[in-house]
What we know:
Blueprint: H1 2-18, E1 23-31, E2 34-44, E3 47-50, E4 54-56, E5 64-73, E6 76-83, E7 100-102, E8 105-107, E9 111-120, E10 125-131, E11 167-173, E12 181-187, H2 202-207, E13 210-217, E14 222-232, E15 247-256, E16 265-278, E17 289-305, E18 312-322, E19 333-345, E20 351-364, H3 369-372, H4 380-385, E21 400-415, E22 418-423, E23 425-432, E24 436-451
Antiparallel strand pairs: 1-5, 1-24, 2-3, 2-4, 2-24, 5-6, 6-9, 7-8, 9-10, 10-11, 11-12, 12-13, 13-14, 14-15, 15-16, 16-17, 17-18, 18-19, 19-20, 20-21, 21-22, 21-23, 22-24, 23-24
Amino acid sequence: xxxxxxxxxxxxxxxxxxxxxxxxxxxxxxxxxxxxxxxxxxxxxxxxxxxxxxxxxxxxxxxxxxxxxxxxxxxxxxxxxxxxxxxxxxxxxxxxxxxxxxxxxxxxxxxxxxxxxxxxxxxxxxxxxxxxxxxxxxxxxxxxxxxxxxxxxxxxxxxxxxxxxxxxxxxxxxxxxxxxxxxxxxxxxxxxxxxxxxxxxxxxxxxxxxxxxxxxxxxxxxxxxxxxxxxxxxxxxxxxxxxxxxxxxxxxxxxxxxxxxxxxxxxxxxxxxxxxxxxxxxxxxxxxxxxxxxxxxxxxxxxxxxxxxxxxxxxxxxxxxxxxxxxxxxxxxxxxxxxxxxxxxxxxxxxxxxxxxxxxxxxxxxxxxxxxxxxxxxxxxxxxxxxxxxxxxxxxxxxxxxxxxxxxxxxxxxxxxxxxxxxxxxxxxxxxxxxxxxxxxxxxxxxxxxxx
Length: 452
């Protein structure tokens, strides 16, 4: 299947040229970063462990190289992107980051995106269909923060090692009668996992509808983004019935690039819900129960603020409150991560100084926040802590408290189509529950990347 798709991509390029395509554009990205040195010093159950100083040549993904093809023929756009890792094969623990389906099984793939867009009614109507497994695709309806570039809002199509939710087929409307307004709605029309035949019904398909809208209020220069996805399906490792929704979600974002002078900012709020149940075999009174659990996430972010002459600052704050049973049964917790970054160009040179730092704090009721949060929070909590590897999870059973700090000063040289950098990353994590763990890590990243 992989070979067939590679051949198809090459054929698409040839056909686009032969059929007198209006435009053909090839672009790419290559990252040759490595780690000059790294070490982990950790404590668990009172014992300290000092790791060896190691050197890692190349990124752990086995090579970050992308090749993209964009072509236009009449009113149809073709988009294909390929992952060109070492050997053009799988990585990430032996799983494929960009899955390929062959019959009832999922194999390693190389296509990170392959979709078409058809334009109608003078581009007031667009039809999208294909695979958007890249790093998440929202077609500009979801804005990221200004330090990490992340968003806690689930994209229209999400990447997953088992192919969850990476497909999308839908319609976008941009009416001339309402300048600045557009919306998109669609369905993940594709198998979800190895047992995709379980989803082969209109009932499950319609429940998976996705809707996002955007309105750019032109005069005050304010943008509103909003959306809803009633059911998000996928394998979780915690249930056998894949046709049950992992969670439902709705969100609102407001982008304010000029409302407050010298403080361009955006704000967003994400609300999630999921059904939770427990059988009589696991309850103290021997009675089964079920309920709906809720989670709230909010982010504030500001960028390109010059508080100190010659320096440019970005900042963000991400807060999450996860009500009873949302993260795990009988668990509730909150979490906050504050990040700040700064850059200072060296006048008359292509060099710049930069720094990035995060401060993280969280609490829970039973010490399970770090263990079980990723399934229903899209790795929100887990990713927020693992800039340099996950902290050691303490023994569960009592209320937990977690805090950490990460810092990354660096110097960077900018090229016309690339950059080179070297810096020092340090991170400290402290976790307390039934036991206490802590971890100090450092590494020297050496970055070299080009794009065309």
